[in-house]
Specification:
alpha+beta; globular; 2 domains; about 30% helix; Phosphoribosyl-aminoimidazole Synthetase, Chain A, domain 2; 60s Ribosomal Protein L30, Chain: A; 8 helices; 7-stranded mixed β-sheet; 5-stranded mixed β-sheet
Length: about 325
């Protein structure tokens, strides 16, 4: 009998296998099978985007955010990258006996402030307390609902050869911030998570219509993980290493530890596949927003049918970006 390992929750190959072989096998349906960040539900009236996520990040407080802020923005972003406008959240908390009430108040206040920033409301919730030693401080689950306007349909099936790949800002910030805080490595580096709501930024480019083919937020697995997932749907891409925006302190941190920043999680960035014709306008609109000032065109779609992601390195060589079986850091979100 197999056992669940930490790698099954890291977003890599083992996670995908677990989803397909356990969850999709039993629960698969037309809404769940696409494995998008939110399910699009057809009801009488507007289409709804519906998503859920659980947050087990360690540590619960980190530079640039905390588990409460992460739980709001993570769910808001999963709805937003589907092209929907987030409206309401549910909030479920599992709290371990002995957890500091002061820390709980701090987290709940962070949730309140984050909801105000994103323009959403918590409309239902639940709290459970487990015995000491049966949890790890606090876990949070949030579900979210958003409204999808007519005519918006973002999917890998809409990607065409010649399209371009855009990222809204620097990559790897969240993963590096969590790793530096958790390990307490003593480096004199100020690395903060990029934890932020994407709905207002994405709203600036959605009106471009057909120019926007696909969007995804690069959380677990980072930029490389997202591109590798897109490639599984028969999309072939080339990315230029020199055009990928990475903060100097994050790059230095990764070089010291021998980590590839392309695989580190982001929590306030969006990857957009755009028609080449509309790419300049996409970049212009992204850069007009504080969260998109570092937006960069990093690569192109070079073929369809045969999937793969190729990184053109700064030295002119080429290497394949694959979805790894496991990642450097579990419990990143």
């Amino acid at each position: 009998m197999g056992l669940i390992s930490l790698s099954h929750g890291s977003g890599g190959r083992l996670t995908r296998e677990l989803i397909r072989e356990v969850f999709l096998k039993e629960l698969g349906n037309e809404f769940l099978h696409p494995l998008t960040d939110s399910a699009i539900l057809n009801i009488s009236g507007p289409r709804l985007a519906f998503t859920t996520d659980s947050y087990v990040v360690d540590p619960i407080f980190f530079p640039g955010g905390d588990i409460g802020r992460l739980s709001v923005f993570g769910t808001v972003n999963d709805i937003s990258v589907m092209g929907a406008r987030p409206l309401s959240l549910s909030l479920g908390l599992i709290i371990e006996e002995g957890f500091a009430l002061e820390d709980l108040r701090r987290i709940v206040h962070s949730i309140k402030v984050s909801c105000e920033e994103a323009g959403v409301k918590v409309v239902t919730g639940d709290t459970k307390v487990v015995e000491r030693g049966k949890g790890d401080g606090i876990f949070i689950n949030t579900s979210g609902i958003g409204v999808l306007e007519d005519g918006i349909d973002l999917s890998t099936g809409r990607i065409e050869e010649g399209d371009v790949i855009i990222v809204s800002g620097t990559v790897g910030d969240h993963g590096a911030a969590i790793m530096a805080k958790r390990q307490d490595l003593g480096f004199d580096l100020e690395i903060e998570s990029d934890c932020a709501p994407l709905n207002h930024l994405i709203g600036k480019v959605l009106s471009l219509g057909e120019a926007i083919r696909f969007m995804r937020d690069p959380t677990r697995g980072g930029l490389a993980g997202v591109l590798a997932e897109i490639a599984e749907d028969g999309v072939e891409m080339e990315v230029r290493e020199v055009d990928v925006p990475i903060r100097e302190e994050v790059q230095g941190f990764c070089e010291i530890l021998g980590i590839d920043p392309l695989y580190l999680a982001c929590e306030g960035r969006v990857v957009i596949v755009s028609a080449r014709k509309g790419a300049e306008e996409v970049l212009k609109r992204l850069r007009s927003h504080p969260l998109g000032r570092g937006a960069s065109l990093i690569g192109e779609v070079i073929g369809k049918g045969k999937g793969g992601v190729y990184l053109k390195t700064a030295y002119g060589t080429r290497r394949v970006l694959q979805l790894p079986a496991e990642y450097n850091l579990p419990r990143i979100c």
